[in-house]
Amino acid sequence: TVSVADGAHKLEVRTTTDKETRLFGMRMVRDFPGVTLSALGITGARAKFLDKQDDAHWATVLTGAKPDLVVLAFGTNEVGDGRMAFDENGQLSKDPMGDYERNLDKVMEQVEKACPNASYMLVGPPDMASNDASQGNAKPMVGIYASHQMNVAKKRGWAFWHQQKAMGGPGSMWSWVQAGMGNSDMIHPTGSGGNALGQMQYLAVMEGYENFKASKR
């Protein structure tokens, strides 16, 4: 840990060897009241990816952050996979959604072991739309994955934020696209859409926090 006076600084990192050096990140914070947000996301993330990482290293990264709240958000890419899942032997799974729940449960358990004093929250996938009006422009797999995520969250005692419901339910992304809040791929929100979702999630967290405080009075 290096402490410096508050203000602008230049940070230079040099290696002391000619050998390959791997830098897993750094954390820079100021000694002021507020919230520090550490994003540990990976492109194309799926819950099963975290289950395959080095458990000890993953625990070190989480522990070092000393989080008060750990939020896991998955589902978008899994929805794209549909019901395709493979077992530990690389064979097509006979119970894909059951395997999904078991993988997710393992990842959530790893988080709990690394950060036993934190609070935990699982965020479901956003709604995704299709051009099929006969299905209400909805993608049924979004709700299916959210349902299985809720099962695991309930089992482990995690808070769960149903992002699809917050957007307006199945097919709501179609309306978001028309309003400029969803991208033309009908999967990802635009900047303004992302800001709206962030605000909704913040309000949901704070509502839960206030209810928790009220229950302790």
Explain what this protein looks like in three dimensions.
The protein is mainly alpha-helical. The chain has one domain: SGNH hydrolase (Rossmann fold, 3-Layer(aba) Sandwich), CATH 3.40.50.1110. The chain has a three-stranded parallel β-sheet with strand order 1-2-3, covered by helices on one side. β2, α5 and β3 form a beta-alpha-beta unit. α4 packs across α5. The longest helix is centred in the last third of the chain and has 25 residues. The model has no long low-confidence stretch (mean pLDDT 89).
In summary, what is this structure?
The chain has 217 residues and is mainly α. The chain has a single domain, classed as SGNH hydrolase (Rossmann fold). It contains 8 helices and 3 strands.
